[in-house]
Amino acid sequence: MGDLSELQYLSVYDNNLNGAIPFQLSSLRKVRYLDLGGNFLETPDWSKFSSMPSLTHLGLYLNELTLEFPSFILTCRNLTYLDLSLNKLSGLIPERLFTNLGKLEYLNLTENQFQGKLSPNVSKLSNLIDLRLATNKFSGPIPGDIGSMSNLQLVELFNNSFTGQIPSSLGQLKNLQHLDLRMNALNYTIPPELGLCTNLSYLALAVNQLSGGLPLSLSNLSKLNDLGLSDNFLSGEISANLIGNWTELESLQIQNNSFMGNIPPEIGLLTKLQYLFLYRNNFSGPIPSEIEKLTSLENLDLSGNQLSGTIPPTLWNLTNLLSLQLFSNNLSGTIPPEIGSMASLVAFDVNTNQLHGELPENISRLVKLNKFSVFTNNFSGSIPGDFGKFSPSLINVSFSNNSFSGELPHELCSGFALEELTVNGNNFTGSLPACLRNCSNLNRVRFDGNQFTGNITKAFGVHPRLDFIRLSGNQFVGEISPDWGECRNLSNLQLDRNRISGGIPAELGNLTRLGVLSLDSNELTGKIPTDLGKLVKLFNLNLSNNHLTGEIPKSISNLTELAYLDLSNNKLTGDVPQELGRFDKLLSLNLSHNDLSGEIPSNLGNLFVLQYMLDLSSNSLSGTIPQELGKLTSLEILNLSRNQLSGRIPASLSSMISLRSVDFSDNELT
Amino acid sequence: MAPISLILSFFLFISPALSTNSEGNALHALRSRFKDPTNVLQSWDPTLVNPCTWFHVTCDSNNHVIRLDLGNSNISGTLGPELGQLQHLQYLELYMNDISGKIPKELGNLKSLVSMDMYQNKLEGEIPKSFANLKSLKFLRLNNNKLTGSIPRELTTLSDLKVFDVSNNGLCGTIPVDGPFRSFPMESFENNKLNGPELQGLVPYDFGC
């Protein structure tokens, strides 16, 4: 290759060349353009490379180069274009880069591991147009000398550890179009001099520690397409004068700051806006009705502010909107039928406001809808009966914490795509939509706190991703299907306070991720399955208030994570298993109101973190109160009443220094 | 080579919407200070509207956190000031872990606290004087840590305090004798460098501390 002495142009990019770059390449004295990018080339011994005085364009990007900045490049004094991006180069940038390569117009070191400070000598690259140093480990301040590099059009320093102020000298860069300083540790305020860079179309300062307000001089940046200031500590108001000239703006992102005051009506002048993110600030006052003029708007997020008043009726004219997020504000009023005209709407989230009234029928027309969330408002009435029928992409639906009534729409899950369905805390009645059975992506389901009366036996099927389900506090009937045992991802299963009958299926023992199992306050019969002892992650087991019979299975003692065990108010017989003494995490034990007999095991004294209660009352326990109970020094409530305990109350119980309530009544104690 | 144009999508920090619930955020901050090798905190999803369905968190009917039960959970790391924001917390159970660092003075803001069990950890530094603000406190168990300094005399104002165990630490100075301290057994103070009960009638003098 090195013998092609007349070669001027060599381009082998985007191949699979590997191995070290051969030094013979450097003997191509006439080569002006060399592009080896997009291969798997490794670091050679750069000292074997001779100088390449004709070289003007050198591309070594996207290879496997490691170690220090290649020294031979520093001798190629005619270089105008140098791209070393996307390698694994490290160490400091040699000063000779700045002093020798004065003809450079394009310098790209993006995505390497270069470190140290950016030398003020960078300004010696007086012809530089493109400066790209992003995604490295540069530190220290951005040198003010950068302001004298008057040819600069693009500066990318993002994703480094630059500190200190944004240099005000940047205001001298009249040709600057693109400035990206995101993801550094820059602090202090945004210099007003940036308003002098009137050719700026892209200004990105997000994810830094900038404070103070936006200088009014930024209003001069009339060519801005993209303005990103999010995730800083910026404050103050957004004034009409500031934004009035930003008529080319397509993306305005100032989320996660401390901006305050009203959203100026002049926002309507920014007619090219596609993205408007003002979320998580302290904006107050109304959403200006002028927002209807933003006809290109696709993503609107005003969430997490203190906006008040009603949603302006004009807002529903934004028919190109894909995502509307207004949650966590103080908005009032209703959702009008005009919402149906937002035909492209994918995500709609108005949770945690003071909206009221009924949901309009037209929400059924939103065929592209993925997410629909109205929780924690004052909505009432029924959910429109066709909702979901024409929206097969529905993934996330939440109606929770409102005053909704009536039945859930029958075809809510017509596309079987639902992952999250939460309707807790309403007055819903009737049964569950039949399509739920086939929603194999279900992850989180809450129906608790309603008046559902349906039959749950076959309402659900096998849901391999189901993690959390709570049906508590309704009037569900039917039985617990063995299919629940196939929902292997379940960590929380709560069916308590319903009218569920039948037995507890042994298949529940397959739910090895289960942490919480609440079946209490139902009409369950039969025995506690031995297989429940396989639920080794279970920390909360509540089977109380049922008609369970038989003995407490010894396998229960395998549930070593148990913190709360409540089997009270059943018809359990047999002994209190002494194995229960192994629960070294148990905080509360309630076996009261059963037909348990035999003695109180002395091992219960080993439940040394038992704190909330030990209730064995209303059983047929006999024998003496074990003195070992005196070791329960954290226990607050002890109830052994209504048994047939005999003998004396042991003196050791005086060590139970945390007791605030004790009941030994109705026994045969002496 | 064509410049990689950073399209608008680069900007878009469309992260899942973190809840604005302050108690959830406080617990989320606590989690970030902890190392949790057995994934006890796996259910702590900060995008949920409140922390009331998180495992080992108990809320009251107004969705305020009243219990935090993380005893014996293999947790290490430190505590932070945000824990003090849980204004309705009654039971703070962090015992039998490997928690190190100092006890944040902000825990004195937990005005509803009934029980604080942080025994058997690696906590160091002093018992904050701010604990005197825990007016509802009944149970305070800090035994088996590496606490130093003296027992703040201000704690004698906690009239509901029934159990106080600071045994097995490096505490120095004298043992208060006023208020609830009249009834605590000597075992509550053993294995420290304490100089016995303070002598009444003399000018308080924390010697050796």
Automatic annotation (TrEMBL), chain A:
Catalytic activities: L-seryl-[protein] + ATP = O-phospho-L-seryl-[protein] + ADP + H(+); L-threonyl-[protein] + ATP = O-phospho-L-threonyl-[protein] + ADP + H(+)
InterPro entries xref list: DNA_repair-toleration, Leu-rich_rpt, Leu-rich_rpt_typical-subtyp, LRR_dom_sf, LRR_R13L4/SHOC2-like
All residue ranges annotated as the Disease resistance R13L4/SHOC-2-like LRR domain in the record: 511-665
GO cellular component, one term: plasma membrane
Topology within the bilayer: Single-pass type I membrane protein
Gene3D superfamilies per record: Ribonuclease Inhibitor
MF GO annotations: ATP binding; protein serine/threonine kinase activity
A Pfam family recorded for this sequence: LRR_14
Keywords: ATP-binding, Cell membrane, Glycoprotein, Kinase, Leucine-rich repeat, Membrane, Nucleotide-binding, Phosphoprotein, Receptor, Repeat, Serine/threonine-protein kinase, Signal, Transferase, Transmembrane, Transmembrane helix
First-tier enzyme category under EC: transferase
Main location as per UniProt: membrane
Subcellular location field: Cell membrane
EC numbers: 2.7.11.1
Protein name (database record): non-specific serine/threonine protein kinase
Species assigned in the record: Citrus sinensis (Sweet orange)
TrEMBL record, chain B:
Protein name from the UniProt record: LRRNT 2 domain-containing protein
